[in-house]
Amino acid sequence: MNEKTRNYLVNRFQGYYTQADIQPPYEYASREWGFIHFSDSSETFMVRHKAFGSEGEIRDQLIGMAPAHAYYSVAYYEYPAAPKMKEKNWQKADLIFDIDSDHLPGKINSYAEMLEKGKKETFKLMDFLLDDFGFDEKDVHIVFSGGRGYHCHITDPSVLHLESPERREIVDYVSAKGMDLEKILDTKEISGDAGRESAQMLVLPSEEEGGWRGRINRYFISFLQEITARDDAEKLLTGFKGVGKKTAQQIVEVFRDQSQVEVLKKGNIDVLSGVNKKVINALIEEGIRKMSAVVDEPVTSDIKRLIRLPGSLHGGSGMKVMSLTIDELEKFDPLRDAVVFGERSVRLKVIKPFAVQMKGKDIEVEQGEQELPEYAAIHLMCRGAAEYG
Fold it and tell me: Which of 41, 214, 261, 318 is in Cβ range 3.0-4.6 Å of 378 for a Cys bridge?
């Protein structure tokens, strides 16, 4: 960005920090802090190894510097301002998850769609953290990153001293990495009729079992109930590899009979004895793919990571980094709720065509001089799509 743009953004970010009510993280004096300035060059530098003894010092730093990005360490140190990592004396660290919306599988057509996809993925992660791991809601803190996704901070004492390998195992669990169905789904021998060989039949876990076993049962049943409730159920089922017309008819018959569904919920899969094992495996694998949460493993395993400060502004979007409860996340619209700047008109030079939906408005601009509401103008400048004046 040019100098005029940098100066404008610094001025507007300072205005925000002058009135912002920012709550520092727990034990903030034991954290390392880092900041990135707005720059009129192509190079970016982080000022780090900072420490603060009071909330006033943090506030003064934010107002005086008006950083593009503000971070603090997930780690707690004895000497957080020490210039070398080995001198800081690591003590413990919050457990952090990062959901980066633009890294999620599938096609994304817009910024708004990308953020919505990240929100849904966050709910999937929360389901694991609260149900499978049993964390209390008060120890699970959701944060909109201000840019592309969401962070989740766990401050439960039971996880603070975990090392990187243990944290990677947690990521493997929520993402179903390395899951071996053979170890989850038991098999039993089914005797064949006269003249027919015996066969291996899967034993489905009960819906009441913990972890992935119970999840697999619940998904398998709900997924097939949803399909078999449709008029074109047989046609949909024959679209799965290995499912012929006869098998499709059996599946429809079973899942439209609530008494047989109740049997399946208990793990007894005999009512599907005519369905090929490979077909059931394929359906379960699809369920695992849909239920697992996609998180950034290096972020979780890094016990010295710097993470964005809630309440600060994101220099790549101009939006607010926001702490959210689970209930707040349900109604949260980042392109409305995380927008902090106003409607006053700002003249700027658009460098490249750009489209975004903010505050419920579809904003589309072409290259050249334009006038936009300040919230949109700052977003474009932060994204590198426009220059001030």
Answer: 318
Quote the mean pLDDT of the chain: 89
Q: Which long-range contacts (CB under 8 A, 24 or more apart) does 50-53 make?
A: 50/81, 51/80, 51/81, 52/24, 52/28, 53/29
Which DSSP string do the residues of 130-166 spell out, in sequence order? IIIS---GGGEEEEE-SSSEEEEEE--TTTTT--HHH
Q: 12-26, pLDDT tens digit by residue?
A: 999 999 999 999 999
Position 180 confidence tier, pLDDT thresholds 50, 70, 90:
confident
pTM attached to this predicted model = 0.87
Q: 41-95: per-residue pLDDT in tens?
A: 667 788 999 999 999 999 999 999 999 999 999 999 999 999 999 999 999 999 9
Burial of 175 (0-12, 13-18, 19+ CB in 10 A): middle
Q: Quick check: 304 pLDDT over 70? A: yes
Would you please indicate which residues are annotated as catalytic (active-site) residues? 98, 100, 296
* Distance from C-alpha of 23 to C-alpha of 309, rounded to nearest angstrom: 9
Task: Round to whole Å and give the CA distance between 166 and 173.
Answer: 11
The 10 Å Cβ neighbour count of residue 271 is 17
Q: What is the pLDDT of residue 188?
A: 63
Report the sign of the C-alpha dihedral through residues 212, 218, 219, 224, in that order: positive
Domains of the chain: 3-174+295-340 (3.90.920.10), 181-291 (no CATH), 341-389 (3.40.5)
The token duo for 166 is: 């243990």
**Is pLDDT above 80 for 241?**
no
How would DSSP label each residue in 258-273?
HHHHHHHHTT--GGGT
Task: Report residue 161's pLDDT band, with 50, 70 and 90 as the boundaries.
Answer: very high
DSSP-derived secondary structure for 27-91: TGGGS-EEEE---SSS---EEEEE--SSHHHHHHHHHHH--SEEEEESEEESSTT-SSGGGS-EE
pLDDT at 250: 87
- Is residue 351 a contact partner of residue 386, using CB atoms and an 8 Å limit? yes
